[in-house]
Design brief:
Helix content is 0%, strand content 55%. By secondary structure, it is mainly beta. The strands form four sheets. A four-stranded antiparallel beta sheet has the order 6-13-8-11, with no helix packed on it. Strands 7-12-9-10 form a four-stranded antiparallel beta sheet, with no helix packed on it. A hairpin with an 8-residue loop joins strand 9 and strand 10 (107-113). The radius of gyration is 18 Å and the shape is globular.
């Protein structure tokens, strides 16, 4: 069983062989087991956006609690997005919606918690909506996993 956890520090476990590596960029890791040497590629995460959100929808808004943020020009090989919440309670969660000029804004991702990963969608007009579990402003950082 192979398991790679990507974060500030990745912990690797391969049939009893373990190691640790910073995952700021893709890193090759050499492992040794009895009679064999193998290599694993640890994937990187790159911050692509950050936005400050209010704990409730903005004045005059039904859903929106932040300004727009962009998810564009992703690193080559991006296979997922990771959302990290800073400055809020651990149970804080929210939706991510897409700003559609003159139309109805669709919900792209629902019930996003810190550390959640999603599929990849690109646009320049995403925003945080309907946060729950916090009573103060917080920051959402978006990372491309590649």
């Amino acid at each position: 069983m192979k398991k790679v956890v990507v974060g500030t520090v990745a912990i690797l476990s391969l049939a009893g062989v373990s190691g640790q590596v910073s995952a700021a960029e893709a890193t090759a890791i050499e492992t040794r087991t009895v009679g064999a040497v193998s290599s694993i590629q640890a994937q990187a995460e790159t911050e692509i956006a950050a936005v400050t959100s209010l704990p409730n929808p903005q004045e005059g808004q039904n859903n929106r609690s932040s300004g727009n943020f962009s998810v564009e020009n992703l690193p080559e090989g991006t296979y997922a997005l990771k959302f990290v919440v800073e400055g809020a309670n651990p149970g804080t969660h929210f939706n991510v919606m897409k700003d559609v000029s003159g139309g109805i804004d669709p919900t792209i991702w629902s019930n996003v918690y810190s550390g959640n990963t999603t599929g990849v969608q690109t646009d320049r007009s995403f925003y945080i909506a309907n946060p729950s579990g916090t009573d103060s402003n917080f920051i959402v950082k978006v990372y491309a996993l590649h």
